[in-house]
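F.,

This is the one I mentioned.
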């Protein structure tokens, strides 16, 4: 590159970035959708104003486990009910307990979601 041209640049720090074909395609598409004039301008905008999230799926896993357990319990209760014609207090208490755990986990997950101003 011409040394004289480089002296007049306000941005003098070059970064080399290697992308897979898929990543390059996504970058090109997002740049087009942004309406920006260049990939460099798009990337600078992301660096200054973009967000990166570190998502912890631990609670979501717990939530799905609880949902599965509730479904299993409900199926067992339905089978017993069909066989005996009775609903047992212990079954109802167990489902209520699991539902409380489920709501607690859901509340906890929602409270940790980032709030973004639009």
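My design for it:
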């Amino acid at each position: 590159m011409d040394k004289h041209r480089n002296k007049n640049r306000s941005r003098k720090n070059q970064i080399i970035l290697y992308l897979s074909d898929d990543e390059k395609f996504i970058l090109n598409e997002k740049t087009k959708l942004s309406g920006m004039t260049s990939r460099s301008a798009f990337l600078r905008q992301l660096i200054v104003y973009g967000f990166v999230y570190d998502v912890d799926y631990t609670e979501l896993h717990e939530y799905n486990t609880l949902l599965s357990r509730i479904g299993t319990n409900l199926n067992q209760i339905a089978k017993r009910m069909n066989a005996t014609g009775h609903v047992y207090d212990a079954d109802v208490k167990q489902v209520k307990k699991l539902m409380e755990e489920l709501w607690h986990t859901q509340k906890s997950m929602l409270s940790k979601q980032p709030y973004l101003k639009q």
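The chain has five helices and no strands.

Talk soon.
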